[in-house]
Amino acid sequence: MVAATQQETQVPTARRWRGNAAVGALAATLLITGVLALSGAPFLLPALVGAIVIAVAALARPRAQRQMAAEMTLSQENVRAGIQAIVSGFADPVVVLDAQGNVTMFNAQAKAALPQLGIGRPLSFAVRSPEVVSAVERVLREGAVAETEFHEKVPVERSFEVRATPVRFDAAPAGATSSAIEIVMLFRDVTAARRLERMRVDFVANASHELRTPLASLYGFIETIEGPAKNDPAAQARFLAIMREQARRMSRLIDDLLSLSRIELKEHVHPTEDVRLDSVLSEVVDTLTPLALECRTKIVLEGANRVLVTGDRDELIRVFENLIENAVKYGQSGGRVDVALVDGERAASVTVRDYGPGIAPEHLPRLTERFYRVDVAESRQKGGTGLGLALVKHILNRHKARLLVRSELGAGASFEVVFPKPQGGESPGA
Amino acid sequence: MADHIVRAFDVDLEALSRGVAELGGLAESMTARAIEALVRQSPAMANEVIALDTKLDALQQELEEKAVLTIARRQPMAVDLRAVIAAIRVTHDLERIGDLAKNICKRVLAITGLVQAPKLVKGVEHLSQLVLTQLKDVLDAYVERNSEKALAVWEHDENIDALYTSLFRELLTYMMEDPRNIGVCAHLLFCAKNIERMGYHATNVAENVYYLVTGGKLLAERVKADMTSLEKPMSAK
Q1: Cβ atoms of residues A413 and A331 within 8 Å
Q2: For residue A51, is pLDDT > 70?
Q3: Do B123 and A151 make contact, defined as CB atoms within 8 angstroms?
Q4: Nearest-10 Cα torsion for A28, A30, A34, A35
Q5: Which of B117, B136, B143 lies nearest to residue A154, judging by beta carbons?
Q6: CA-nearest residue of chain A to B142?
Q7: The pLDDT of residue A406 is above 80
Q8: Domain-embedded: residue A74
Q9: pLDDT band at A173 (very low <50, low <70, confident <90, very high)
């Protein structure tokens, strides 16, 4: 229906334009011949005749042909609108390219995955991966489907399977020259699958390495209890206490490794719920108050009421539990831990500050590495697994938040978590 | 960017930008794979990256040629001239990044099978992640013509220097702990240095993006956090 009404309005416009062109051509040629005549040129008559012939020819182009041309452009527009609708309907990212490799259409999913996408801009501005670039070249050269896969390592690891299909969005009737080749690119996010494959390998590597020490000591104590300490209940009791502590450490380590793997698995999916930061913080402080008492430390919570951020409540609790627990444990000589919540225009931030011995500058950039410990002995003694801050980093990555660590030896340390707020005017790729 | 009367000029300029983006993609991918080859100790992967370097060099030369031809044919002015000049400079830095990735891969071939503990390469991997982020951000800044983003990359180089300093010390410690580590750690030190140099080239690209967009220069001296060249060697206790 829409097509029919558009056609009715469109055709007269086309005819009018054609008429105007003919009048214009006639006027222009008459003008030229007039000028030539004034300059005394000898070919006045043939020129005049020529001009009239051109003008008449322009006016008298067969009407049927004109109408067909108008119909063709129209239906092609309709086809494009239809294709755009189909492209938007896909749940996976879809991008359509012209024969030059410039983007002509894409859907919202594609824009979310590749923020640099823009109509009329080369695809390689958005996906620089050589695999994708050469797949597009291959399709244009050979006219056959090309499949490839590309990986991104930063800011979060992502993998996509890409299928590039050559198409002709051809609305011309049979026999007419067909339209130029275009490429439909289908992207499929395979990050989770690839992660799962690798997770098993990494888990075994990490776990076997870190579990070896406590396991060796357990083994040693068992041998001692079976042998030399067989008839010494006092020594047995002492050893069993140490063994329990080691076993507990091993199970904590496995717990942390598992949660780290779980977080990594969904790191590329950003959370969508709204979470009240203030209530998260007061909950965490309540849970940790007994520990603080034990360490003779006071946790002071201050700051704005009701601050909303986009996030996952359980994960955020985990983040602040880790940060505040660290501050209490490692900064206990300061006797005080400050937790400050600040709500700003561009970002909300939480700062956890302790007044303990501080951290030497060479350790600062590395704190979030897995199993990196400033002081191995102290960390083990306090029950640390070396995974706490790695976990924090991965959760914050998922939240697009940043962790800033400031410290000086002897002056305590502060860990600031910054949640940037989405800015209204910000439009990447513009 | 406003269109030019000669449409072919726009086509030339766009082809140049596209070429730079693609070259950047190649450099990014080579770097990421070089690090993966190092972490996974995979000579096969290392050899793949080494082979890619020829492609990178060829692409860089082609782009440079294209840039020179654009100047000769179109005599660009103002922002157009800056776009061409920046393209030439940026391709040089990207080509260097590819060379450094190749060098890392050669070292991977030398130390495969000798790395005793995964902790040895952990720090290098972390450093590479910072540099890859810098590289991605600066190439995004280039295609977006975003001087603010370029400035941010330029300023963040400090983090890489700080991490490099820390890594330098750590590797020295491993060498002192066990002399059998010395061979591997010496190679890893060079790998770390190569990655740190990539960061330096990323800041060069940032300077050129800033120049392209604003015509100005990022002149003020950057904060220097790499102190290893001034540091006294640790003495073994």
Answers
A1: yes
A2: no
A3: no
A4: 20
A5: B136
A6: A125
A7: yes
A8: no
A9: low
The last residue of a domain, from among A254, A269, A284? A269
Q: What ipTM was assigned to the predicted interfaces of this complex?
A: 0.83
User: Could B166 and A370 be called an inter-chain contact, meaning their C-beta atoms sit closer than 8 Å?
Assistant: no
Question: Which residue from A124, A209, A428 is facing B18, i.e. has the nearest CB?
Answer: A124
Contacts of B21 in chain A (CB under 8 A): 122, 124-125, 128
Distance CA A292, CA A327 (A): 10
Is the peptide bond prior to A155 cis by the omega test (within 30 degrees of 0)? Answer: yes
CB-CB under 8 Å, A372 with B129: no
Mutate to test the interface with B, among A133, A136, A366 (most CBs of B within 10 A): A366
Best mutation target among A97, A114, A362 (most B Cβ atoms within 10 Å) is A362
pLDDT of A425: 43
Confidence tier at A339 by pLDDT (50, 70, 90): very high
Angle at A65 between CA A64 and CA A66, to 5 degrees: 90
Domain that holds residue A49: 1-61
DSSP assignment of A144-194, as one string? S-EEEEEEE-SSS-EEEEEEEEEE----SPTTSPPPPPEEEEEEEE-HHHH
Reported as a single tens digit per residue, the pLDDT across B39-60 is: 888 999 999 999 999 999 999 9
Helix-strand-coil split of chain A, %, nearest 5: 55, 20, 30
A164 and A282, same domain (yes or no) = no
Alpha-helix residue ranges (DSSP H) falling in chain B: 7-40, 43-74, 78-111, 119-144, 147-177, 182-214
Average pLDDT over residues B203-223: 82
Amino acid type, A420: P
B-chain CB neighbours of A213 within 8 Å are: none
The length of chain A in residues reads 430
Q: Do residues A396 and A303 share a domain?
A: yes
Residues A425 and A428: their CA atoms lie apart, in Å, by 10
> Nearest CA of chain A to the CA of B162: how many Å?
7
* A231 DSSP 8-state letter: T
- Other C-beta atoms closer than 10 Å to the C-beta of A84 total 15
- CA B125 – CA B38 distance, rounded (Å): 8
Q: From CA A92, how far away is CA A84, in angstroms rounded? A: 14
A 10 A CB-CB count for B90 gives 28
Query: Quick check: is A67 in a domain?
Result: no
Tokens describing residue B163 = 């991490």
Asked if A401 and A282 sit in the same domain, the reply is yes
Tens of pLDDT, residues A240-281 = 988 888 888 888 888 888 888 888 888 888 888 899 999 999
CATH number at residue A221: 1.10.287.130
CATH number at A109 reads 3.30.450.20
Asked if residue A141 belongs to a domain, the reply is yes
The whole-angstrom distance between B38's CA and the closest CA on chain A is 15
**CA nearest A369 in B: which residue?**
B126
- What's the pLDDT score for residue A368? 85
Q: Could you tell me the pLDDT band of residue A10, with boundaries at 50, 70 and 90?
A: very low
The CA distance from B185 to A231, in Å, is 49
For residue B22, give the nearest of A128, A369, A428 by CB distance.
Answer: A128
Any A CB within 8 A of B123 CB: yes
- Domain annotation for chain B: domains and CATH numbers: 7-230 (1.20.58.220)
Q: How many domains does chain A have?
A: 4
Per-residue burial over B93-131, b if 16 or more Cβ lie within 10 Å, else e, is bbbbbbbbbbbbbebbeebeeebeebebbbbbebbbbbb
Which chain A residue lies closest to B169 (C-alpha atoms)? A362
